[in-house]
Design a protein that fits this description.
The protein has a three-stranded antiparallel β-sheet. The chain is mainly α and 576 residues long. It has two domains: 235 residues, no CATH class; 223 residues, no CATH class. A hairpin with a 5-residue loop joins strand 1 and strand 2. It has 15 helices and three strands.
Length: 576
């Protein structure tokens, strides 16, 4: 174990690399054991109950709590030490987002505690201990991420690698548990909807592991049981965001960083009114479509078909707008000549990998729907809308991924919109160059002209200078030439600056519009509006069980893609 950042070690980085490999393998085995336990509970494996799974998760959370407390105590004792920080990791807006999800997760835990109290006669004690432990774990973890997400750990690196990677996979397992629980609830509603659409030949029985006893307070039990499933999407997003932030912290352990000034990128509403207005229109219409969809689907065959048709038409329109906006942004990038920042950045690299990796979930579902439409023998009218919808989903993610990845790799402009200071190149006698302080001093006649320097505001221009011994005609001619050259140079400069600002304004509006569109497209699958379940055509072609397995595996990644894209686009808007 390394006890200090400056302590020399034999073999240089070799022990650190070994610690990284060992800790990653520890985390993977931890995750696989929990994943297998989760699967065994889901399929009713002999000898495996929900209490075993919850006991495993409780143990992992307690270990992480001990490590975080140790890290926080050690940080307090070493507060005077100067620590390296990764300025790209743990942005404030990301911390605010995870805090919002954590607050809703705490409400979910309180609902679970109330649910356990009402069914305490037939539930295992672990189902009451789990939400309490999870609530404490959530509070401490959010505090830890707020204070230490940017840390670059240089001491106790081997121990810290195991602690951080343990935290990463603990959150991934909690995410998996939330996804599975929420999916089982969706499957029960899915079968009822398929029956109303006329697919009565599906006879598979689904089980939601309901408690085998009566509730002490019927009204409260109904509120708790229904409320839990509406809050699960926020819990799922919380754990996946926490795992990504912790993964960046793990990658930064022992990293050597260059100390340079980081330009702050605050979020400003100024200049993005158009993008915000169109985005809010999409968001409002999406919420309305989801509400109508959830009310109408499953009521009758006609109402279900109308609900599916309405969803597809709305989604096609939104995806077409997003594709158009993304293409315009990429065309603007092609017209600009700005270099890319290829420096080592774990947070940025993870963002790009997550965008492409999680997009594969949507692509899998889209290609499955396209294949089902092609191969199916009978095609209800509403299923034809699924074809352009699936094609646009594939194309839109291609374009959006390219736009976001190029945006986060482009070097940020150091200058502001308003030019505060201009460096003036001066030509002195003897062909030597010097810099005068600012353009204001030139115009006020306070430049140092004692050595016969001729100040020039722009390259290639000639600026008048006072010469007590010079002729009046030459002075007047020089003054006229100077005025003409100044006017031409000023016009050219501000014209170029105006074009650049217009491009930036368009890009900011596009980023704001796409940000709200991705939030809009996150809402339907997160809250149960899933045509991949309700369409019915895919189940006929692939079979009920195979297609449900595909949907349950791909849908969580598709949901996370939209939230991660929204977060990345928020960063793009701040950076542009």
């Amino acid at each position: 174990m390394e006890k200090g950042a400056g302590t020399p070690s034999v073999g240089g980085s070799y022990p650190q690399k070994n610690a990284e490999i060992l800790s990653s393998q520890y985390g993977i085995n931890l995750f696989l054991a929990g994943l297998l336990l989760t699967f065994a509970w889901a399929v009713h494996a002999v000898g495996i109950s929900k209490s075993h799974l919850l006991s495993y998760l409780i143990t992992l959370m307690l270990i992480q709590l001990l490590w975080m407390l140790w890290y926080l105590c050690r940080s307090c004792t070493q507060r005077r030490l100067i620590r390296d920080k990764d300025t790209h990791a743990g942005a404030r807006w990301l911390k605010c987002g995870i805090t919002l999800f954590a607050v809703i997760t705490l409400i979910l835990d309180s609902f679970k505690i109330g649910y356990y109290i009402d069914f305490s006669n037939c539930l295992s004690p672990t189902e009451g201990i789990f939400p309490v432990t999870h609530a404490v774990h959530t509070i401490l973890q959010v505090y830890f991420l707020w204070c230490h997400a940017k840390d670059i750990i240089q001491s106790f690196k081997t121990l810290e690698r195991f602690g951080v990677i343990h935290s990463v996979f603990t959150n991934l397992l909690l995410w998996t548990n939330g996804v599975l629980t929420e999916s089982k609830h969706q499957l029960n509603e899915h079968k009822e909807r398929l029956i109303t659409l006329g697919f009565g030949n599906i006879t598979i029985v689904l089980d939601d592991h309901a408690p085998q006893c009566n509730c002490t307070t019927t009204t409260l039990c109904s509120i708790f049981s229904q409320g839990i499933y509406y809050l699960y999407p926020f819990n799922i997003e919380y754990h996946i965001l926490a795992s990504t932030m912790l993964y960046v912290l793990w990658k930064n352990i022992g990293r050597k960083v260059e100390h340079h000034q980081q330009h702050k990128t605050p979020f400003k509403l100024h200049g993005i009114t158009v993008g915000m207005i169109f985005g809010l229109i999409v968001l409002t219409s999406t919420i309305a479509v989801v509400v109508v969809y959830l009310i109408q689907i499953g009521r009758s065959k006609i109402k279900s078909e109308l609900a599916l048709t309405m969803f597809y038409l709305h989604a096609i329109f939104v995806l077409a707008l997003m594709c158009t906006a993304g293409i315009v942004a990429l065309l603007i990038y092609r017209l600009e000549d700005r270099s890319l920042d290829n420096s080592k950045n774990p947070a940025r690299k993870l963002d790009a990998e997550l965008l492409v990796g999680t997009a594969a979930g949507s692509w899998l579902l889209s290609w499955g729907s396209i294949l089902a439409i092609i191969c199916a023998q009978a095609h209800p009218k509403y299923t034809w809308y699924n074809l352009p919808y699936s094609v646009l989903v594939i194309i839109e993610k291609y374009i959006q991924n390219l736009f976001i990845i190029e945006s986060i790799h482009r070097e940020q402009e150091k200058g502001n919109d308003d030019i505060k200071t201009l460096r003036i190149v001066t030509i002195s006698l003897g062909s030597t160059l010097s810099l005068t302080p600012s353009y204001k001093e030139i115009y006020n006649g306070r430049a140092a002209c004692d050595r016969g320097e001729v100040p020039c505001l722009f390259k290639g221009s000639i600026c008048g200078r006072e010469n007590d011994g010079g002729g009046g005609a030459d002075k007047e001619e020089t003054s006229q030439d100077s005025s003409v050259m100044h006017s031409a140079s000023d016009f050219s400069f501000y014209s170029r600056n105006s074009v650049t600002n217009n491009k930036r304004r368009i890009l900011k509006n596009i980023a704001a519009f796409l940000f709200l569109c991705n939030l809009s497209l996150w809402i339907p699958p997160a809250f149960g509006c899933r045509p991949e379940y309700d369409n019915g055509l895919e189940e006929i072609v692939f079979g009920f069980e195979p297609w449900i397995i595909v949907v349950n595996l791909a849908m969580p990644f598709s949901i996370f893609y939209r939230m991660h894209s929204a977060a990345s686009l928020f960063e793009v808007n701040c950076k542009t």
